Amino acid sequence: MRILITGSNGMLGYDLIKVLQNGNVLINTTSKTLDITKKDDVLDFIKKEKPDIVINSAAYTNVDGCEENQDLAYAVNGEGVENLALACREVDCTLVHISTDYVFKGDSNTPRLEDDELGPMNVYGKSKLKGENAITDILDKYFIVRTAWLYGYNGGNFPKTMLELAKHHDTLTVVYDEVGSPTYTLDLAKAISELIKTDNYGIYHITNSGSCSWFEFAKLIFELAEVDVDVKPVTANEFASPAPRPSYSVLDNEKWVKNGFLPLRSYKEAIGDYIEILKGED
Ligand SMILES: NC(=O)c1ccc[n+]([C@@H]2O[C@H](COP(=O)([O-])OP(=O)(O)OC[C@H]3O[C@@H](n4cnc5c(N)ncnc54)[C@H](OP(=O)(O)O)[C@@H]3O)[C@@H](O)[C@H]2O)c1
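A: This is the predicted complex of the input protein with NAP.
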């Protein structure tokens, strides 16, 4: 298959290339080679390249930054996605788009299903929902993959931040009243590579199995990395970041499983593998 990947030097983009490079022709683009906010460029590029599938892993992902740079957030996460959807319709190709748990309000305490009520509470989530809506309005052949709490080899993320902070601090405070499912981008990329072999289009929740708070996740990271640091729980209010975040944003992967796929492995196993890779680099 000819697969065009946007955001290819991002965290997920890196693992998508790793997983999809054998047996496919990849057209890897970055914001420099294909700025998705430029409608005419997007249309020209996709018409020229004629991919079978476009995977959009490009986004403005700085959740707090989105509060300050709202125009940019909506341009990339909303209009940029609309541009891709219009271009995919023009050449009749499938669009795979990555979305987020933050499209939900996150005030319930049960895992969210794909059709549950949406209600993003920050600009990032609102802009990502705008992107989702553009796709469902414009296309029939799409996969919207909502995922959460990503970490991977190529890019800054929570585990790396924790390990870096622990080099200079004996005690760290970490939020305990936000719960989600940490997800390894390599596992997600493998899941996407399976999903695109089907034509069961629609919205999917795909995360590693299980859930925890940021506090619990930090403790596990330090245990696995054998780093001795005192981790103290704090509330999100005490931490005071610019963007409000859902207190509970676990995604139910039921539809993925109903379509015949195995649940992704547990987040504990996945972070174990990831920490081993980081250890190997020290
Ligand atoms: N990170 C998470 O915890 C998380 C959670 C849930 C969902 N998601 C979603 O998962 C997807 C992948 O996330 P990620 O963490 O891998 O993101 P990332 O590492 O921040 O990578 C995003 C990429 O998007 C590219 N980009 C930004 N603006 C662009 C534009 N105007 N045109 C083209 N490319 C542009 C950037 O490319 P350049 O480097 O070339 O500027 C960057 O490499 C995103 O859709 C995100 O919303 C992420």
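The CA atoms of residues 95 and 179 lie 30 Å apart. The chain has one domain: 2-156+182-210+249-265.
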